[in-house]
């Protein structure tokens, strides 16, 4: 019986103390030797099971042994394999047991920290409940609490009713007087530090010593308020001093006052950390007393606290099993028995526990893992800390993946599979890869991330497995294979030459050789390339394959890479070219050159001068990378027509079969014309405005005055007077002002300009014509005798002419008419000769008024006389 005693002491007793939780470490559970051998393992398992049967006769071990036997049924295949000599399942299970034990301890420690909260305190019942739920010995969890500086204690008893019946009136008076609590009212500024309220009141005094809340202190504050004049504040002070002199213990009054304020904040959903801050900073309670107060207030469900409060706290936290244990333990017994509220809460806990246990037992006998998982999920929703339920749920493996497909795409293997039929819980997938044989489980092989194997081994048999996981339980893997990754040649390139083709590539290191085929004929080639003489002008198609050796030494040829090439004579360069702007579209350039014998001419636009000499032969990709290829169309008379847009260097290259020869180049300066040119004649000046072209430093303004000069400019753009205007001058003047005769037509042309070396270059010009305008001056006079007054308008100009229509407008009041519609026409004439005069009867207006002349002729500008002639005062 020596083995039984040792086993009970080392295994069964600690497991019973942990809430009948069997140890996860199978080496400890079955007392396995350090060196695992099949015969020794089988003998030790039989010895341990015999000890279980003998120990089951003791009532205290009966439930634990039942759990051990139930779990052994699931472990039987592992020990059967070990007895046959296969120790791998047992080794993996031992490794997983240590990890689960460590995770369980970590979970218990985290739950303990959560329960302790900001005060860093837990009750003994909470500690016991956490230990039982997580399957950790209580003493071990208590040691972790000491290491984490978590105090295990019962909450301090707090007063449930005020020691003074009229406390609410006292509280109102304290709030009116702006006092934090009773001690602040009694001592005021004499409080020099935090006060202690548990076990009697005490606080440091500002002048040294300790303040006591005794009869002397109450008498002193009463006398202080008695010396004040009577007002509303003294009435409230009398209410407070009456409570202090009522015979109730002042220390108990202060304790209840502080506790009531904390309870009020708790009802307002304040957190434990906020309650601590309120007690220490706002109420001035000593930190240790503040921790104990917050701990006690939070643990009570109402002013009464006690068993009912602890039961409600456990039920609110979902720890129904712990609540049921507490309701059936010593805390619920006593002379008077539990309160009515506690009895109701205990009944609720037992009812929920019974329902959860039934669900757990039904799940244990259920053959369908998905339905069993859902039953256990329902049980855990009822009782979150139900023993064995979470562990049993974690061991329920989902249904395996129906099939797995592996597709090789060059050097990548892409995996795809339909999802597991299981729909209960969160099902995840693990992909493993193994060489030479299929993987047996989720740990047998190299684990891959995602559905793509980016770096598989080359030319070896690969097997892939996908394992469906739910929690810690894994289904049987779905396997695909064998798969062989035999990459093709990379960077395959065929270079045409004059009567020859050169091939080059990068060969995988695992390939034995390279096979090149053309038209069904084998082309001699090495591992790095080949060269073959062929006639020019014909397209040749090649298939370049990699050859691998399988496990038996047989050659395996890949499908290969298909490429084509057309050898030709080297292209001829463009030796000379001319570039001229299109006369009808300044943005288009006509590039003319002599067509080469071989190749096609392309035009590139470069930012810098070409880095290669003329006639240099280069790969066409290298030349095109240096600039922008321009879209070109054939030009009338030969050459190409392009629209380069921006400025740069135009380079002609001749392209043939992937090769390009560098030809002539030309510096192109892009000078876009000004946009939205407008002109307005203002007397002897014409004001110009336009959108200044971007990146243009200056413009050239050309002015042509008179009909003959304008006609000459249509044949010769250089005719006229020229002026260079900078951007700064244009911005400073707010436009351009050109002095011109008033009676002559004017054409103004504006073109972008810049200097390239010593040459000034001018872009296409835009022009606007301003018609001539004749200035006509008029006078308004009052003529005739007083009984027949008239208004006479006398007109004069520098040359005789006629006005098509003249209107005299009157407007009453003090505002001059600015348009013909601003007043009432009192006279209108057509074909009025200038010089000449017209008259109308004087208006009979009673107040001041204005008169003014207007004309519809847009080539005539009327000049007003002095204001005294236009404004008439009555």
UniProtKB/TrEMBL annotation:
**Which interval of the chain is the signal sequence?**
none
Source species of the chain: Actinomadura miaoliensis
How is this protein named in the record?
A: Fibronectin type-III domain-containing protein
The SaeA first Fn3-like domain, residue ranges: 407-482
Disordered, as annotated region = 1-23, 96-115, 142-163
Q: Which domain of life is it from?
A: Bacteria
Residue ranges, compositional bias (Basic and acidic residues): 1-13, 142-156
- A Pfam family (short name) is Fn3_SaeA_5th
* InterPro entries in the record: Fn3_SaeA_1st, Fn3_SaeA_4th
Domain SaeA fourth Fn3-like as annotated: residue spans: 682-768
């Amino acid at each position: 019986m020596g083995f039984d005693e040792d086993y009970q002491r080392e295994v069964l007793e600690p497991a019973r103390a942990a809430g009948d939780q069997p140890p996860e470490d199978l080496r400890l559970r079955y007392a396995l030797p350090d060196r695992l051998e099949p015969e020794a393992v089988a003998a030790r398992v039989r010895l341990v099971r015999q000890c279980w049967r003998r120990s089951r006769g003791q009532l205290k071990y009966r439930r634990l042994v039942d759990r051990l036997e139930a779990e052994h049924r699931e472990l039987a295949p592992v020990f059967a394999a070990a007895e046959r000599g296969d120790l791998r399942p047992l080794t993996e299970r031992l490794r997983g047991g240590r990890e689960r034990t460590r995770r369980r301890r970590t979970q218990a420690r985290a739950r303990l920290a959560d329960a302790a909260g900001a005060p860093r305190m837990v009750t003994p019942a909470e500690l016991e409940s956490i230990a039982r739920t997580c399957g950790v010995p209580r003493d071990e969890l208590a040691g972790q609490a000491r290491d984490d500086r978590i105090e295990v204690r019962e909450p301090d008893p707090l007063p449930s009713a005020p020691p003074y019946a009229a406390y609410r009136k006292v509280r109102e008076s304290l709030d009116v007087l702006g006092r934090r609590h009773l001690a602040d009212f009694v001592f005021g500024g004499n409080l020099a530090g935090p006060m202690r309220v548990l076990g009697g009141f005490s606080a440091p005094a500002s002048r040294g010593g300790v303040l006591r809340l005794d009869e002397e202190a109450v008498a002193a504050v009463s006398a202080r308020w008695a010396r004040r004049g009577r007002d509303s504040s003294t009435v409230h002070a009398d209410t407070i001093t009456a409570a202090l002199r009522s015979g109730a213990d002042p220390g108990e009054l202060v304790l209840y006052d502080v506790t009531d304020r904390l309870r009020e904040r708790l009802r307002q959903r304040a957190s434990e950390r906020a309650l601590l801050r309120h007690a220490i900073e706002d109420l001035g309670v000593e930190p240790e007393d503040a921790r104990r107060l917050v701990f006690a207030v939070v643990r009570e469900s109402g002013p009464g606290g006690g068993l009912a409060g602890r039961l409600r706290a456990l039920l609110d936290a979902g720890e129904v099993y712990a609540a049921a244990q507490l309701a059936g333990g010593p805390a619920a017994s006593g002379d008077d028995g539990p309160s009515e509220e506690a009895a109701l809460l205990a009944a609720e806990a037992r009812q929920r526990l019974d329902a959860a246990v039934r669900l757990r037992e039904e799940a244990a006998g259920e053959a369908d893992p998905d339905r069993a998982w859902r039953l256990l999920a329902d049980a855990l929703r009822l009782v979150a800390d139900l023993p064995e339920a979470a562990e049993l749920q974690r061991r329920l493996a989902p249904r395996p993946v129906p099939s797995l497909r592996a597709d090789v795409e060059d050097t990548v293997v892409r995996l795809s599979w339909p999802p597991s039929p299981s729909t209960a819980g969160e099902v995840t997938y693990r992909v493993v890869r193994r060489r030479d044989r299929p993987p047996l489980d989720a740990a047998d092989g190299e684990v891959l991330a995602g559905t793509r194997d980016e770096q598989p081994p080359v030319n070896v048999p690969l097997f892939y497995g996908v394992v469906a996981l739910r929690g810690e339980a894994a289904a049987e893997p779905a396997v695909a294979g064998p798969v062989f990754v035999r990459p093709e040649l990379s960077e395959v390139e065929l270079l045409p030459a004059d009567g020859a083709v050169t091939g080059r590539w990068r060969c995988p290191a695992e390939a034995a050789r390279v096979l090149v085929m053309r038209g069904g004929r084998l082309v001699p080639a090495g591992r790095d390339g080949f060269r073959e003489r062929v006639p020019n002008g014909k397209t040749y198609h090649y298939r370049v394959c990699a050859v691998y050796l399988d496990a038996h030494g047989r050659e395996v040829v890949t499908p290969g890479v298909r490429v084509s090439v057309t050898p030709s004579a080297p292209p001829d360069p463009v030796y000379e070219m001319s570039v001229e702007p299109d006369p009808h579209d300044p943005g288009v350039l006509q590039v003319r050159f002599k067509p080469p014998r071989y190749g096609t001419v392309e035009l590139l636009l470069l930012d810098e001068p070409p880095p290669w000499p003329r006639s240099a032969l280069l790969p066409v990709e290298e030349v095109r990378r240096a600039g922008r290829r321009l879209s070109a169309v054939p030009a009338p008379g030969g050459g190409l027509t392009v629209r380069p847009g921006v400025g740069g260097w135009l380079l002609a290259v001749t392209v043939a079969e992937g090769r390009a020869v560098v030809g002539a180049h030309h510096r192109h300066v892009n000078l876009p014309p000004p946009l939205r040119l407008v002109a307005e004649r203002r007397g002897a000046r014409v004001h110009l405005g336009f959108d200044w072209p971007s990146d243009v430093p200056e413009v050239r303004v050309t002015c042509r005055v008179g009909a003959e000069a304008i006609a000459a400019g249509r044949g010769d753009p250089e005719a006229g007077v020229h002026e260079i205007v900078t951007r700064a001058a244009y911005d400073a003047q707010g436009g351009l002002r050109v002095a011109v005769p008033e009676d002559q037509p004017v054409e103004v042309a504006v073109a972008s300009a810049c200097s390239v070396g010593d040459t000034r270059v001018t872009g296409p010009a835009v022009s606007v014509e301003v018609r001539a305008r004749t200035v006509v001056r008029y006078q308004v006079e009052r003529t005739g005798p007083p009984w027949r007054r008239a208004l006479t308008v006398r007109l004069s100009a520098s040359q005789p002419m006629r006005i098509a229509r003249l209107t005299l407008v009157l407007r009453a009041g003090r505002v001059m008419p600015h348009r013909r519609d601003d007043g009432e026409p009192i006279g209108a004439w057509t074909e009025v000769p200038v010089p000449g005069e017209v008259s109308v009867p004087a208006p009979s207006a009673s107040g001041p008024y204005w008169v003014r002349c207007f004309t519809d002729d847009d080539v005539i500008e009327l000049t007003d006389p002095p204001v005294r002639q236009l404004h008439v005062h009555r």
